[in-house]
Amino acid sequence: MGDLGEAFIQAPEHRPNTHLINSGDLISPDEIPTIDLSFLGHPDHDKTAIAKEIAEACQRWGFFQVVNHGLPSDLRRRVDETMAEFFNLTTEEKRKVKRDEVNPMGYHDEEHTKNIRDWKEIFDYFLQDSTIAPATTEPEDTDLRKLTNQWPQNPSQFREICQEYAREVEKLAFKLLELISISLGLPGDRLAGFFNDQTSFVRFNHYPPCPNPELALGVGRHKDAGAITVLAQDSVGGLQVSRRSDGQWFPVTPNPDALIINIGNCIQVWTNDKYWSAEHRVVVNSSKERFSIPFFFFPSHEVNIEPLEELISEDNPPCYKMYNWGKFFVSRNRSDYKKLEVENIQIDHFKA
Ligand SMILES: O=C(O)CCC(=O)C(=O)O
Ligand SMILES: [Fe+2]
């Protein structure tokens, strides 16, 4: 990606070394929990113990790792290989499937988080090859648009492997959604209906070595917008999570057998702030490239997000006003595409 231009430079308070981590004398060691899902292979197993662990993790961190999650390790290896092969193509080749302002899928090397450019290149594809979303961000405009994936010609197995991965990770996402519903004391299928025509997508992140890792971030601090993110990371490390209780940054230790799960804005709103959508960011380094693969489990465009009526009461009135998922999704995509003069949309804008 060459030199570190002005656009990448984080404000001093957001630079990676401003809140020291791994310096035992400053903060106590703490870590996001790891939850064993091996019971998923045994359908008669009582889910309450796991649901309790999930409830704790979602309240305290909004982040956890899962092991024995059922995603085939062979598939994971094939995805890793094909992703690395794709990013290894020439820039000219990759730009043949470059995203544009309207269609967010494809290759992009100028993504911005909160209007600062990220030190990364990405490839995005929808779970559903054609996905319906609002045509514009205008609240009154009810026109819809069909968004389609852009597939590169090389690597030759790319599309097939990507689609296989998306289908497998979707299965896990639905299982997690069920466990999260149960953990809230709700029926297991309470949230599934929001995902009938989902806008979910998979992202391949490539973070090249960075000449000035102390000034830039691979991804600037942000919360994921959707319901759940299922993230595969390699062994390099760099992901950091802000602890709910005090905002301190903690690294997520790479575990090649684990997947990282985090709660997005939708679940924070549905649970009326009981479950937490944590801020996280990615630090880069000057010697090693890093790859990661988030799956963003996103509802259908027509879903209106608001606190679930079962979870609010006179003592716990709704903390958020309703917002339409499709409009939020389209607005966020436009602002991530390039630097804008205005702040991008956040759930805090819908605080009641
Ligand atoms: O690369 C990572 O570990 C996390 C990336 C991330 O947070 C994102 O793409 O939303
Ligand atoms: Fe994220």
From TrEMBL:
UniProt domain Fe2OG dioxygenase: residue ranges: 198-299
Keywords from the named record: Iron, Metal-binding, Oxidoreductase
Keyword Metal-binding set for record: yes
Superkingdom of origin: Eukaryota
InterPro entries per UniProt: DIOX_N (IPR026992), IPNS-like_FE2OG_OXY (IPR044861), IPNS-like_sf (IPR027443), Oxoglu/Fe-dep_dioxygenase_dom (IPR005123)
Family: Belongs to the iron/ascorbate-dependent oxidoreductase family.
The protein's name in its UniProt record: Protein DMR6-LIKE OXYGENASE 2-like
